[in-house]
Write a structure and sequence with these properties.
This protein is mainly α and 81 residues long. It has a single domain (3-79), classed as Non-ribosomal Peptide Synthetase Peptidyl Carrier Protein, Chain A, CATH 1.10.1200. 57% of the residues lie in helices and 0% in strands. The chain has helices at residues 3-17, 39-53, 59-62, 68-79. The termini are close together.
Length: 81
């Protein structure tokens, strides 16, 4: 899976599942502060990442993911090992 495929999939579920405006979806966007995601939203993201990419996100791993780019990179790293 290419990095571009990952970005497209993540951006699509953010706009569809969380109703985030496409203009807000930027790599440097902070998940909590800029996109307004809350703790329960991170659970949904973990479920979606598991379904889409076969990666299990653990709570301690999620604490290191602050921006969209962090999320893209995390998924890319584990899908291309």
């Amino acid at each position: 899976m290419t990095r571009e495929d990952i970005i497209t999939a993540i951006n699509n579920f953010l706009t569809e599942e969380f109703e985030i405006e496409e203009t807000q979806i930027q790599p440097a966007a902070r998940l909590r502060d800029d996109l307004g995601l809350e703790s329960l939203d991170f659970v949904d993201i973990a479920v979606i990442v598991q379904k889409e990419f076969g990666i299990t996100l653990k709570g301690e791993e999620m604490t290191g993911i602050k921006t969209l780019n962090d999320l893209y990179e995390y998924i890319f790293k584990f899908t291309n090992n």
